[in-house]
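Suppose you are handed only two things: the residues of a chain and a line of SMILES describing pyridoxal-5'-phosphate. What would the bound structure be? This form records exactly that question and the answer produced for it, so the two can be stored side by side and reused later without any lookup.

QUESTION INPUTS
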Amino acid sequence: MIKQLLLAPGPTPVPARVRAALARPVIHHRTPQFGELFGRTREALRELFGTDGDVLMLSSSGSGAMESAIVNCFAPGDKVVVINGGKFGERWLELAKMYSLEVVEIAVDWGSAVRVEQVEQALKDHPDARGVLVQGSETSTTTCHPIEDIAKLTRERDVLLAVDGITAVGVYDVPMDRWGIDILVTGSQKALMLPPGLACIALSERAWERAKSVCQPRYYFDLARERKSQAGNSTAYTPAISLIFGLEEALSMMKEEGFPQVFARHERNARATRAGVEALGLELLSPNDPSPAATGLYVPEGVDGKKLHGYLRDKMGVAFAGGQGHLKGKIVRLGHLGYIGAFDVITSLSALEMGLRHFGHKVELGRGVGAAQEILMSALPD
Ligand SMILES: *Cc1c(COP(=O)(O)O)cnc(C)c1O
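ANSWER OUTPUT
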């Protein structure tokens, strides 16, 4: 037997308390019992999203909520500015094109964040733009875009800001109402510590207004219909009941720790991971705008990324993520979001050291681990 550890940026490990909740007997969804569970969960989600509005739960993976954002808030021919700095920026781009939006693309080097001035310029050049689509954390490049500053531009214009927060919500503070985000999306298998299959989406009041006049074909993802049902603690269709049991438990765990402490833990673990990677002399994928959700690093010259990845997973039992798109085989991404503690970071770096040594790269064992320990010891709360 090889003990398997999941240290990828999604899916992420599911804690025992959440697994126990997932295993509860399924109850019927048209009952007061489900209504109460749903109501409590909606309330906790509002807190996490930092909104007084409704956070809707949808039975789909995160991309379903991204698609729902497009079909509810943008009509064919609407012009949108898409920040494309990785695999998930590409997803916004593909979705927008699929629904016949007119796309103004800001292409950003993978591993860099968009600069606010670029967004400002695009909005000046295209005063008819109706939306900006961006990632809060571009998981494929382990990079964060400056959402708070972009929101300052969109909220004073008639431009909806849609944020894919799938590895941002629950990782760092994304206060939707305070920043003025119009559409915020997340998925269950990242910071929410659940299996895949549930997505959450919240809209600002002006996004709900916009949705009224948007004619795009939509049925399952008709958010106005969902909003009406969910306001009464019910859903338009059969909800993912077990996942909602799990979500309530996961949110309870996060609230017991405290949301600010959850965010601080992610920041601390990310910092320790980066220190470890740099101490090993490896190059970070996103040195300047790193995400607290995951750390990407270039596989050193002479090591086959695909083989390294497979060896770590199958022989050592540590599953990281590789690269997507043109970074396939060239990078490793160490996930540190969700149910992750200091010693998962230590395990990550330790496995990385041993894996690289196995493939002949010169590594001083313990060097990365030691650098991470220094950070963790100075940053851990008393
Ligand atoms: C994982 C992820 C997605 C895709 O979500 P699915 O649940 O696979 O549909 C989209 N955006 C980001 C930033 C992600 O990390």
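WHAT STANDS OUT: The two ends are 37 Å apart (CA to CA). The chain has a mean pLDDT of 97.
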